[in-house]
Specification:
alpha+beta
Length: 148
């Protein structure tokens, strides 16, 4: 376990990561959406925010699946700390695929329904010199409604 993973487990209000790895195939997206919905509901996000989280997970994963190389895995990791759900998705994509992963449209959707968003790529996959790994990370803070 690396240092970042250990930090996910430390402190009150923190819950360890949940990670799912599936083939980068559109038929697998239902599993990833169900996982995101279950984690968001367990953490007490209101229904409208659960919908935003599921939409963001679906959009990020679908954009990676569309650009992935044959046989790639899609990784989705969710962790919670102090009322903030953090989602990290990644997959191996082809350098000859779309120039921008996620697309501008996907980026707009993700930016609209999340509180923070970033994406980057790792150019040199040690197993395949020609491919790259693209990561999309975002977070959503639970909205605290005042009590009456």
């Amino acid at each position: 376990m690396n240092r970042r993973e250990l930090a996910d487990w430390l402190g009150p209000g923190c819950r360890g990561p949940v990670e799912l790895r599936v083939p980068a195939d559109a038929r697998q997206l239902v599993l990833v959406r169900m996982l995101a919905q279950g984690v968001a509901e367990r953490e007490g996000f209101p229904p409208d925010e659960v919908t935003d989280i599921v939409l963001a997970v679906d959009e990020a994963c679908a954009s990676l699946v569309r650009a992935s190389v044959p046989g790639a895995l899609l990784t989705c990791r969710l962790s919670v700390a102090f009322g903030k759900l953090r989602v990290e998705v990644s997959s191996t994509v082809s350098p000859t695929g779309p120039a921008s992963v996620p697309s501008q449209w996907s980026w707009r959707v993700l930016d609209t329904v999340t509180d923070s968003l970033s994406a980057w790529r790792h150019e040199l996959d040690p197993r395949r010199d020609v491919d790259r790994i693209v990561h999309i990370d975002f977070a959503k803070q639970v909205a605290r409604h005042p009590t009456r």
